[in-house]
Every structure is written in structure tokens, then in C-alpha cells.
Amino acid sequence: MPRGVTARVGARAVERWARMRLGCAACVAAVLLAIGAAPADAHLIGTNAAPTNYRTRVLAVSPPIQGLQVRAAEIGGALELSNRTGQQVIVLGARLEPYLRLEPDGGVDENHRSPTWLASRPPGSPAPRSPSPNPAAPPDWHRLSGGVRVVWHDHRAHWTGSDPPQVRRAPQRRQVVIPRWQVPLRVGDQTAVITGEVVWIPGSSWWPWLAVAAALAGMVGVAGRTPRWRLVVVVAVTVAVTLDVLHTVGAVLASVAPVPVRVYASSPSAAGWVLGGLAVHRLLQRPDAESGLFYLLAAGFFFAFAGGLADVTALGRSQVSSALPVGLTRATVAASLGLGAGMVIVALLKLPRSGGHLAG
């Protein structure tokens, strides 16, 4: 073989190997990401927004105060209070100590000497300066934000621990488990009380949605053995990315976390979308498409594990933290699980064996 031809063949082999190494690196990164995301809900934005069968409702603020708005957020994982009353609002803790303060002209502070603050701190928060908060001591106020809104996790307003006896006796019956929770407030010189309830709402069966996921995985896997498998991959990736974007948007819109937190929490999903796009782009570049199969494998692992399996509890719980309807949220989870598994099957079927070439 002439020297020039040999050099070109060698250059193509080096480029091909570099692409395959890049694809392998992406696959390994996605697998590690999927494994890391699996124990928690992948699209969960907010520390207390895990799918549940308990629904928290705010019933009233007594007496009604103009400009004061309170609602349950993230399916009861948090309470949100907005102060447009023109007066100072203080949320009292479980021992009636000052817990949160909203100034009339904007500004939110929290009292680090409040036992309620200590009990409500999110996981990973810095240790308090005072190891034993004292509700009778003068408040130690720390500024949270300069706005008129505060969001906090309050143990009084949601169910914790194991299911109560009445739920264990009749889990398929809707029932009130906390008929009247209360959070007291001071609004200027006036005392008010936020009142609500916690209701057990039975979930639905997981099996129909898991059957949908299995059917999608089988359809993609079987179609991946046909001569038009590339078209199958393009369709599967496009649908998976579209539904995952929809799922992520629903979680973002339902969250009351700060915008930077929402963006950060959504970044792993964006990585999965990029992997899917790279897989389609590489696979459509015939004949050197081996690296695309590694990208496809990586994207499939991501959608199946980090996007589907990690959110699988949403398939059977009645309360899901999303702006989407519950049924649509479940459909996006089942589709991610099934289409992702199908992508993995196709990638494993089409990856060239040692010394072989890409089929199709």
C-alpha cells in the first residue's frame, strides 16, 4: 500500500479511536451521574418535595388580613408567606418564640435562637452558633433576603414518620390525618393564626405505568434490530428529550427554591439532553458512527436511571411536586424509563465486536 494511503488510513484510525474514547468517557460520566442520582428524585427541586400520599392544605388565616397571603408549596413540603400588609409580620415557632420576621418595607430574617429554626434547617446547613437555642432569649436575627416573601419547611404543617393507624387500617380510603394544624403569627399589634389540614389521599397502582415502560423498551429494542434502526434511535431520543424537558419544566415551575438553585438542579437533565443530541448527530454521520453508540448508551443510562428510575415513586403516589397534571408527570417518567432502556438495548446490540464494524 502506498505510503500516502497508509498515512491517511492511519490518520482516520486515530481520529476514529479518539471519537470512540470521547464516547466512552461520556458513557462513563453518564453512568456515574445516573448512579449518583438514583437514590433521590432526579427532577426533585426542593428538599421536602418528594412524592407522597399526604396533601397539605392551608384552609384560612384568622382573622383575614389584607395583603397577607399564605399557601402550601411543593405538595406541603413548604409554606410560603407573602407580606404586603405594610406591617411587620413575625411567624411564631412551635414554642411561640419569634421564628421568622418580615419587615413592612421588605426584608426577611430568621431567628437562630429559635428551636423551630433548628428543627427546620435543611440538610447540609451550617451548624448553628448556639448549640442549644433558647426560645426565651432575645432573638438572634439573620437576614435571609430583601424581599416580601418567605418560604420555610414547617413540621407542624405536614405528616412525618410512619403512617397513622387509621391509614394502615384503610389505606385505600381518603381520610384526614391532621384535622387542624396551626401556625401563629403577629401582624403589627395583631395576632393571627394560619390554619390547615393534612389529608391522606391513596395513590394508584404502579404496574400499568411499569408495563408501559417495559413495552416501550421492548418496542425500541426490537425495532433496533431492523435495517431502519437509526430512524428508530432518532425518534426515541427525540421523544425522550422532549418529555424529559417537559418533566423538568413542570418540576421547576412547581418549585419555590431560588432561581439559581432551580437552574443548578436542572443541569443534570440538560446534560442528558446534550448526550442524546450528540448520539443522534454521530449516528447520522455514516460510516464513522461508533462513538455515537457510546453517546446513545450514555444517554440511555441517563434517561432510564437518572430520569426514570430515580423518579419512579411518582408512578404510585397521589401527590407529585410538578406544575403538570399528575397523569402527564407519570407518563413522562414511564417514557424516560422505557425509552432509556430501549436506547441501552440498541446500543449494546449495535456496538461493534472486537475487530468488527458497525452494522447498518
User: How would you characterize the largest beta sheet?
Assistant: 7 strands, antiparallel
Q: Quickly count the helices.
A: 8
Through-space gap between termini: 28 Å
The low-confidence runs, each spanning 5 or more residues with pLDDT under 50, are 5-15, 34-40
What class would the helix/strand composition place it in?
Answer: alpha+beta
Order of helices and strands: HEEEEEEHEEHEEHHHHH
Mean pLDDT: 83
Shape: elongated
Helix content bin = 40-55%
Query: How many separate domains make up the residues?
Result: 2
Beta-strand content estimate: 15-25%
* Rg over C-alpha atoms, rounded to the nearest angstrom: 26 Å
- The largest beta-sheet arranges its strands as 1-10-9-4-5-6-7
List how many beta strands DSSP finds.
10
Oligomer: single chain
Layout: helices, strands, pairs:
Elements: H1 3-37, E1 54-62, E2 68-73, E3 78-83, E4 89-92, E5 98-102, E6 108-111, H2 115-120, E7 141-145, E8 149-152, H3 165-169, E9 175-187, E10 190-200, H4 207-223, H5 229-254, H6 259-283, H7 290-308, H8 326-350
Antiparallel strand pairs: 1-10, 2-3, 3-8, 4-5, 4-9, 5-6, 6-7, 9-10
